[in-house]
Amino acid sequence: MRTDDTNRNSDGDDLVDVDLYDDGTFPEYGFKQAPKGLATRRQLRAMGLRPGGHEPVAQLTWRGGKRMAWLYRIDLAKPKRTPTLAQEQALDRAMAARQTCPECGRRYFHCLRLRTVGCCEECFDGTPAHPGSYIAVAA
Q: Which residue from 21, 50, 102, 120 has the least number of CB within 10 angstroms?
């Protein structure tokens, strides 16, 4: 088989991509045309829900088919899970590592550019930081 003929098999026939599980009944809706009772993941999250393990029941497409989102049934959705205390502590430690300047020790309310700059802007080039943008270091 030649490398430039990637869509042909050894007999020279065209290959066809077939989805064995698609029987052609998966509904597809355009922008703002989905029926009531269906929502995307983001819409479920805004309602405090999650898909809960069930498969999408339809597809939403827009921008001429270039954008797509799965639609889930709202009545089968489950409430969002709340993280445990240990999970919240682990997330706080991870965020602290991204928000704390290694030179001055201040913890900012935004992530610092530690890979490129290596420290906060004030330590890097002297640009004063707004006092409301960080947590003061305990002396």
A: 21
Tell if the pTM clears 0.70, that is, is over it.
Answer: no
- What digits encode the pLDDT tens for the residues 91-120? 999 999 999 999 999 999 999 999 999 999
Name 85's bridge partners.
Answer: none
Q: For residue 89, give both structure tokens.
A: 């502590």
8 A C-beta contact, residue 106 and residue 99: no
Cα distance between the two ends of the chain: 72
- How much is the pLDDT for 8? 53
What radius of gyration, in Å, describes the C-alpha atoms of the chain? 25
Closest CA relative to residue 62, chosen from 39, 37, 28: 28
**Rounded Cα gap, residues 55 and 139, in angstroms:** 54
Beta carbons within 8 Å of 45's beta carbon, 6+ residues apart: 80
Can you give the pLDDT at residue 12?
60
CA neighbor of 109 nearest in space, from 127, 89, 81, 129: 129
Q: Where are the domains of the chain?
A: 28-79, 85-135
Nearest to 98 by CA among 81, 111, 86: 111
